[in-house]
Amino acid sequence: MKAKKIEISYKTIIFTVLFLLALVVLWQIRSLVILLFVSFVFMEALNPAVTRLEKFKIPRPLCILILYIIILAFISFAVAGIVPIFVEQSAALIESLPETLQNIKIFGNNAVDLSSQFKILESIPANVAKTAVSFVTNVISGFVVFFLTFYLLLEKKNFPKYGLSFFGEKGKEKFLKIVDLLEYRLGHWVNAEFFLMIVIGVLSYIGYLVLGLKYAVPLAIFAGLLEIVPAIGPTFATIVAAIVGFSISPLIGILTIAWGIVVQQLENNIIVPKIMRRQVGFNPLITILLIATGAKLAGVIGAILAVPLYLTVESVVKVLSKKE
User: Fold this and answer.
1) How many angstroms separate the Cα of 14 from the Cα of each of 19, 23, 27?
2) Distance between CA 180 and CA 189 in Å, rounded?
3) Within a 10 A sphere around the Cβ of 260, how many other Cβ atoms?
4) Are 112 and 101 in contact (CB under 8 A)?
5) pLDDT digits over 197-252, tens only?
6) Side-chain-side CA neighbours of residue 248 (13 Å)
7) Cα separations (Å) of 69 from 90, 142, 149?
8) Is the pTM of the predicted complex or chain greater than 0.70?
9) Where are the domains of the chain?
């Protein structure tokens, strides 16, 4: 039996080398790629509103600016009403947290002693410090996303031309179908996430008020913001709220934990499945698996971007695999 001779052409070698080099370059600029992807997601979410404004014969750049002004005005009015209370209560919370931990008694044990057994409590100050240190970087990243989204929205009208240039007449049609599908699915996902954050924040605030919990405003905002990282975020928010609750009394602390569990059960079994299925057409089990995988591979950023990245890949595969 003759041995088979395997030949590798120089083209294959060149392609392999170039592909590996491209992967290395992408890894080196991964932060920029993430910002670009986030900007793309926001562009797809905001484009329908910009398109509707264009129907009033307003130039596209002005439509984008009007939309930005509306969004910023909404945020500013919301922040103006919340920030003074938020700052005051947050400062008081941070100032009282060491003493609170020192004075809390759970089953006769000091909470500081218990923290050696529950390692998650030890990481709270470190996480707060890391958040404070990275604040400036996150603000800069926010401005980058702001401007990238603006220019992507500006160039959205030229996508057919770019599709024709890069993919030809036949490829252009599939490219535009992918863009349209992404606009629908990613846009709905962004809307669903914002709605979920508001719902969880409001539910948390109502519960904290009823329980008589101090610092209800910052704790509720904290819970709403952490909703973007399902399972992990709400759990961490409940732990922080419970610490404040135990500083009042063991009963308030236990009731705070109970309310956190109730909100999470409502979220996991009723709110998220209905909203995600209605807005994105997504199976909740797939959502949980994607978030867990993303968190394992890339931490918090991976957990946040897992769903939109999957939606992007799924949409591309769906259009490309469809026979015409």
Assistant:
1) 8, 14, 20
2) 14
3) 22
4) yes
5) 888 889 999 999 999 887 788 888 888 888 877 667 788 888 888 888 887 888 98
6) 17
7) 28, 16, 14
8) no
9) 32-128+154-321
